[in-house]
# Entry
Amino acid sequence: MSDQPHEISRSSQAARVAAVLGALIIIILVAAPWWAGRADMRLMGELFLYLALASLWNLMAGYAGLVSVGQQAYVGFGGYMLFALTIFGGLHPVFAIAGAGVLGALIAIPVATLIFRLRGAYFAIGTWVIAEVFRLSFAQLSALGGGSGSSLPVGIVRSLASSRSGRESLSYWMALGAAVTAITVVYLMLRSRRGLALTAIRDNELAAGSLGIDIWRTKFVVYVVASGLTAMLGALIFLQKLRISPDAAFSVNDWTAFVIFIVVIGGIGTIEGPIIGTLIFFALRETLADLGTTYLIVLGVVAIVVMLKAPKGVWGFIVERYDIQLLPLRYRVNVKEHAKR
Amino acid sequence: MPEPILSLRKLEARYGDFQALYGVEMALNEGEVLAIIGANGAGKTTLLRSVSGLMSNAAAQVVYHGQPIGALRADEVAALGIALVPEGRQLFPSLSVEENLLIGGRLNRKGPWSLDAVFELFPVLKERRAFASTALSGGQQQRVAIGRALMSNPDLILFDEISLGLAPVIIKSIYEALPGIVGDGMSAIIVEQDVSKALSVSDRVYCLMEGRVSLEGRSRDISREAISRAYFGVE
# Structure
């Protein structure tokens, strides 16, 4: 192959088209308050938050091998921190969201120190146990409503924007910003020096260790960053909901099972996978929601079929078949067919 | 007599109930190339795994520059200047050739080895620097694995079965490159099933049989009969 004229680059035609299309889509989405209805904006806002949650879970599970089924701990923690920082700390909600992220990252440090002693399935179970500890602990806090929860005072809600449409637009933009930020953080992290180490760990943990990569520290950084950002997302989610309770905040179904579904059917270990997965999940949810519990059975069947027929998810299947990268991390060798002739 | 840079002191290693090494004693001097030979299952790879930190042992059973390192993790051992070229290459399939090499240079240890130096040693890797490591032939992949270990500028390099699964002509060319690698005071341990290749590049040889040292001597002095006895345990 080396005798054939070829060029080496990270970019490709598909990546360039995707970049232009991506920029256009973001511009159109930013302008949504001027063209979309209230229900559509609410739905898109929710979609963006799930996309952000899925991208972060994918960073942990797909790249660092940290299969956590307890990320609801940070969603709930972030939500409660929003309430605590605004009600008791007097912070503006936007600053409280940032504060929730910082506190989420801080609480992730002792949690990681504890659960990183566990491996594989035990790690997964450990994360779930931690999330339950969080849920039970917050249920004890009477100042935040105890087991029945509490609502965000009207004054705090109004401090976001005076009009309802203004608040809805701001919530929508923050959700869109969260999704773009989460994907950008994951993309930049994977293209960095640490990302190289992370990819090496995912490919071959033993070889990575014997080349001097501190596996524990690399995974630790990923866990703390992902958990801090997940806590920020939790704050955003409950700023939209305006009400929080331990069962809603620490729901394994809402904040982890659906997120895992999105990543697995989209394509674990790829940046594009969670994007595709989120679109599929919301398409299924919006078309099948009227079926009640049957909807959950259909989700399960879809997950099983994808895992059996395309274990690398829909995006993994597309990459294998068409060799496309929309958000290129790897270099490619493009053989120039015309020059060859 | 100078202190050896690496000493194994009554090294024991286990996989659960199975004991792979029984009180192995070994010493490696600075700049020396040591060959470890032995049949399948003799404990050669286990010995390298113990030195490189991939297997945890009692700290005092592996001593490097006077420091007990038997209980250190692999990344801590690598930071001390011990690099492993693992059996089966163990490249990172998602990364390009150049990225595989750069991973090896993450430790930023000072020394003669850099990306350019590795490309000078193995020009084919420069030509294919942007290729996925999986797109290379077995011999080229082995060169990447060696280059990746050299990029950390180690004081001691461990080669585990570098000829495994390669064509004789490729093995020959890799072994021809070895003197250029292990010169300049770098020490090496070569685990190899190909006895003549191992003897041709080493100063001393240890033979392992069923987890114990069955023979030790200078590579050029040792007789074929002695090796046969130590290797197979038969007269």
The interface with chain B takes residues 1-2, 8, 193, 196-197, 199-200, 202-204, 206-216, 330-333 of chain A (CB under 8 Å). Residues 335-341 of chain A have pLDDT under 50 and may be disordered. The radius of gyration of chain A is 21 Å. Residues 120 and 248 of chain A are 27 Å apart (CA to CA).
